[in-house]
Amino acid sequence: MSQTRAAIAGLGAIGRAVARRIAGGDIPGVTLACAASRDLAKARAFLDEAGISCPLVPPAAFPDYADVAVECAPAEALEEICTPMLAAGRRVVVVSAGALLPRPDLIDLARRCGGRIIVPSGALLALDAVVAAAEGVIDSVRMTTRKPPRGLAGAPFLVRNGISVEGLKEAKRVFAGTAREAAAGFPENVNVAAALALAGIGPDRTTIEIWADPAVTRNCHVIEVEAEAARFSFAIENVPSENPKTGRIVALSVIAALRRLNTPLRVGT
């Protein structure tokens, strides 16, 4: 099997989980070539403790080391991570899907240079069904997200509008609007909404409600789709990772996407 060299941008909860699996040989055909982090001392301490040997380099150097980059960094770093790889005709696995919506130039760059942007689907059940339905006509896509209040605390939309989620005794709707608006207002919370929009009818026709709910302990998403080919709804409850804004399944979805790069059997769209 040919080897795919992977770079990881960001060694937070997601990046560390992915790094351990690659370095442990759990993904056939994928090797860890390098990583990038804003906090180099902290990143080096993690790599040393985990027994992982790989250089820490700036994202601009990724094309010199890697065939695919995994972006699991703060949303504002997306362009810095993606641009060098896409310009070199390489692939980028993007976790911060919401940050793609205001940056169509990255998709244009991938198209011009032969690069490829991969948005993992594992964090959102039945995304393949939305992709399939979009080959026909989709009338509407609605999403309702419920998260523990601490998983939404500090979101720019809440801060900007003076909305508090502290000390809630019952569920509180904190947002209703389009997926584009949600991605801008909650950049670390609703990447699933951006992935749903990109898979289906776009960020301006996909609608979303976000609730801060003290009664839930998981990140809960309910999606309803009305399409020419089918009417379907699905729900998923993701267990939060050590970062309450992110579900554990996000790292697993990245690992699954990397595994599918070289697998002889690919199941799903």
Please describe what this structure looks like:
With 269 residues, the chain is α/β, with parallel strands linked by helices. The protein has 2 domains: 130 residues, Rossmann fold; 118 residues, 2-Layer Sandwich (Dihydrodipicolinate Reductase, domain 2). It is built from 10 helices and 10 strands. Strands 2-1-3-4-5 form a 5-stranded parallel sheet, with helices on both faces. Strands 7-8-6-9-10 form a 5-stranded mixed sheet. Helix 1 runs parallel beside helix 10, helix 4 runs parallel beside helix 5 and helix 8 packs antiparallel against helix 9. The two termini are 23 Å apart.
Number of helices: 10
* Tally of individual domains: 2
Mean pLDDT score:
94
Please state the CA-atom Rg, rounded to the nearest Å. 18 Å
Instruction: Give the H and E element order.
Output: EHEHHEHEHEHEHEHHEEEH
CATH class of the largest domain: Alpha Beta
- CATH architecture descriptor name of the largest domain: 3-Layer(aba) Sandwich
Category from helices, strands and their pairing: alpha/beta
Distance between the termini: 23 Å
Overall 3D shape: globular
Summarize the amount of helix as a percent range: 25-40%
* Residues in β-strands, percent: 15-25%
CATH evolutionary superfamily of the largest domain: NAD(P)-binding Rossmann-like Domain
Low-confidence stretches: none
Strand order of the largest sheet: 2-1-3-4-5
The beta-strand count equals: 10
Largest sheet: 5 strands, parallel
**Which fold name corresponds to the CATH topology of the largest domain?**
Rossmann fold
